[in-house]
Design a protein that fits this description.
The chain has 20 helices and 27 strands. With 675 residues, the protein is α/β, with parallel strands linked by helices. The protein has 3 domains: 227 residues, 3-Layer(aba) Sandwich (Aldehyde Dehydrogenase, Chain A, domain 1), CATH 3.40.605; 199 residues, Aldehyde Dehydrogenase, Chain A, domain 2 (3-Layer(aba) Sandwich), CATH 3.40.309.10; 150 residues, Roll (Thiol Ester Dehydrase, Chain A), CATH 3.10.129. A 7-stranded mixed sheet has the order 14-15-16-13-12-17-18, with helices on both faces. The mean pLDDT is 96. Bound molecules: NADPH dihydro-nicotinamide-adenine-dinucleotide phosphate. The site of NADPH dihydro-nicotinamide-adenine-dinucleotide phosphate (NDP) has 25 residues, from helix 7. NADPH dihydro-nicotinamide-adenine-dinucleotide phosphate binds next to helix 7.
Length: 675
């Protein structure tokens, strides 16, 4: 018998004597005792905020990202321990792959995004400098720093590993300690993963704690610096988000809840198109994976009038081939629902849907389970047909959280979008079409009701990730009924655990706070040319100003012939004069860039390894023949990249002989840590 323990204030806590007994959804046998332990919830909050928070905040974003990568690698090395428990949740190995490998993969993505898109420091810059004054002495910059509270993650039963890791990764990257509360029914799998994380020794003390069972008065103890991220039913979300202290303190509350996701077959699709098969394939996957217990599963299939019968026929033929049974048995494609209780709930909801539809596939009282006892968690995929989707109500409002979907007919694209929108807010809607205009029409009519729109067709079919797969790069959440929350979405998901603050002040103040040189801030002179200095020697603000160079007409003509760029503004005085931008013939912008490099580069071998690009190039004033240009080059931002070198970004500004700025850009170089 499994006994998942809580992990509170550094101690593993066993279930109480009167813990809940969890039964296998496959055999009905008792498999675990869980919950009931008396936990010191204030002690857990204190442990997180006094130990985990400070330890995480002492690390830079890159250090936290490295920790996540090491953690993901460690879990990956021991994932078979998780796969061994996975069938006890009713899930097949393929289902488990989404949960276990999907969770680990999500952590890897956040680790990599943290290294690439966040600084190797403690202050995250959100957006660019805002020019708040004419003279440039008063500027603005949005920054984000981690909240000092605790993140409470309440997860649903269907993804005991992914559900935890997709919330932990952004929170830990932000620098916020977490208390994880998995759904009790599958908590043994979450606990196994937390044990692996603790064994790794990679997490600072207090960074992650675990509650098996109820949360007691934990939520009523939360304050303004805390975050609740919840996945589950709309009913529980409402109860928790309306707790007085959550409202009074403005405690952040992120919710993912029920969702009547739709998949639309485009009007262009007929049975002889590749998109028809694609629709059937995606619909089958969503019905059978995790036995339909996915928050993103397709609950409503919206198809052109004329496609109702062909879709029902093709889907039924495909579902006929789905082998249902013990998730560990050879050849089984669809396992059991998570529990007999969940099965009863699904049947109750399916009965409601049945009041305005006809069941066209799947009989819950008569289906094959390959010898497994069908009275436990098993159900067949069930398809309903609704011929009057405009009059229907239950179809658009009742979520049967299992292998249940309804097929609805539509007249035209506007009607299809209107039906999809009847779900009152969903996590995802997919559109299978090869017609870009249909895709655009549905987007304009429908995007405001859906957290994600997924388009698939013959071009993307091979590489598309699937209607039901939330990706760490993209936001997962949806408006209205879907909870109004947003998770993941790359660094956006990290910002949910941070406070955005608008910083206003002089260039020197902003440079000191942000660790990035801001135009107008003090410049420093180094002991030698900065290209001869190592990454660590180069100081933010270190500047060189070059000698001037005259740009002659011969230079311009030579450049034009040499490169083939004989645009009239450089070569034809009359035509150039007629152009409102130019006083006459002017130098090529690219010629100026080349001369700039010739002015500021120090040619000897040294720590500068490569020029990797330039950003935000603007040509601000024309340069005429015989003008003189010079360059100011300032070290703007440094980011460690590998164990051998880091990136230095330079502000390069070009001036003419009158001191007017003529061009500006950010130059990217890789610089070694040693000579
Ligand atoms: P619940 O809302 O009952 O449970 C979700 C989580 O909340 C579980 O961890 C549960 O713990 C916890 N919980 C429940 N009550 C409280 C409380 N008072 N205080 C703190 N935590 C609480 O949803 P279910 O998991 O039972 O699923 C029911 C329905 O939710 C599904 O049928 C489906 O409609 C929807 N759902 C939606 C998902 C989505 O992502 N959109 C995912 C999964 C479900 P415990 O298990 O201990 O009760």
């Amino acid at each position: 018998m499994l006994e998942p323990h809580s992990y509170a204030a550094g101690q593993w806590v066993a279930p109480a004597r009167d813990a809940a007994i969890l039964n296998s959804p496959v055999t009905g046998a008792a498999i675990a005792r869980a919950g009931g332990a008396a936990l010191d919830f204030q002690g857990m909050i204190d442990w997180a905020t006094s130990r985990g928070g400070p330890a995480l905040r002492a690390m830079t974003f890159h250090e936290r990202a490295k920790m996540l990568k090491a953690l993901a690698m460690y879990i990956d090395g021991r994932k078979e321990e998780l796969y061994a428990l996975n069938p006890l949740t009713g899930a097949t190995r393929k289902d488990g792959w989404i949960d276990i490998d999907g969770g680990i993969g999500t952590m890897f993505v956040f680790a990599s995004k943290g290294r690439r898109e966040m600084p190797d420091s403690h202050v995250y810059l959100d957006g660019e400098i805002e020019q708040l004054s004419r003279g440039g002495t008063f500027l603005g910059q949005h920054i984000a720093l981690p909240l000092h509270g605790v993140a409470v993650h309440i997860n649903a039963f269907n993804f005991p590993v992914w559900g935890m890791l997709e919330k932990l990764a952004p929170a830990l990257l932000a620098g916020v300690p977490c208390i994880v509360k998995p759904a009790t029914q599958t908590s043994f799998l979450t606990e196994a993963c937390v044990r692996i994380m603790m064994d790794s020794g990679l997490l600072p003390e207090g960074a992650v704690q675990l509650i098996i069972g109820r949360t007691g008065d934990l939520l009523s103890r939360l304050g303004p610096q805390d975050v609740v991220s919840f996945t589950g039913s709309a009913r529980t979300a409402l109860a928790l988000r309306s707790m007085p202290n959550i409202i009074e303190n403005g405690t952040r509350f992120i919710a993912e809840q029920d969702s009547l996701n739709a998949s639309i077959m485009g009007l262009d699709v007929t049975p002889d198109c590749p998109e028809f098969d694609l629709f059937i394939r995606e619909a089958t996957t969503e019905l059978t994976t995790k036995a339909g217990q996915k928050c993103t599963a397709i609950r409503r299939m919206i198809v052109p009038d004329a496609m109702m019968d062909p879709v029902i026929g093709a889907l039924s033929a495909r579902l006929e081939k789905t082998t249902i049974g013990d998730p560990e048995a050879e050849g089984v494609r669809m396992g059991a629902l998570v529990s007999a209780t969940q099965k009863a709930d699904v049947l109750e909801m399916a009965a409601l849907i049945g009041t305005e539809t006809t069941r066209v596939y799947g009989d819950p009282d008569n289906f094959d389970t390959q010898g497994a006892d069908p009275t436990h968690g098993f159900l067949p995929p069930m398809l309903f047909r609704c011929d009057d989707p405009d009059a229907a109500k239950q179809v658009h409002s009742t979520e049967a959280f299992g292998p249940v979907s309804t097929i609805l007919p539509y007249r035209d694209t506007a009607h299809a979008a209107a039906l999809a929108n009847r779900g009152q807010g969903s996590l995802v809607a997919s559109v299978i079409t090869n017609d870009p205009q249909i895709a655009r029409d549905i987007t304009l009519a429908s995007a405001h009701w859906h957290g994600r729109l997924y388009f698939n067709n013959r071009t993307s079919a091979k590489e598309a990730t699937g209607h039901g797969s939330p990706l760490p790069h993209m936001t997962h959440g949806g408006p209205g009924r879907a909870g109004g929350g947003e998770e993941m979405g790359g660094i956006r998901g990290v910002l949910h655990y941070m406070q955005r603050t608008a910083i206003q002040g002089s260039p020197d103040i902003l440079t000191a706070i942000c660790g990035v040189w801001v135009s107008g801030a003090k410049e420093k002179t180094g002991p030698c040319h900065p290209f001869q200095r190592t990454f660590h020697e180069i100081e933010i603000g270190e500047t060189i100003t070059t000698d001037p160079r005259k740009v002659t007409l011969e230079d311009i003509e030579h450049f034009a012939h040499f490169t083939g760029d004989a645009f009239y503004a450089h070569m034809d005085e009359d035509a150039a004069k007629a152009n409102p931008f130019f006083p006459g013939r002017v130098a090529h912008g690219y010629l100026l860039l080349s001369f700039a490099a010739g002015l500021f580069v120090q040619p000897d071998p040294g720590p500068v390894l490569a020029n990797t690009g330039l950003n935000a190039l603007t040509f601000q004033q024309p340069v005429s023949p015989d003008d003189e240009i010079h360059v100011r080059l300032t070290a703007k931002r440094k980011t460690r990249r590998t164990d051998e070198y880091g990136e230095v970004r330079w502000n390069a500004t070009l001036y003419n002989q009158r001191g007017d700025q003529v061009a500006e850009y950010e130059l990217l170089t890789m610089v070694a840590y040693s000579r």
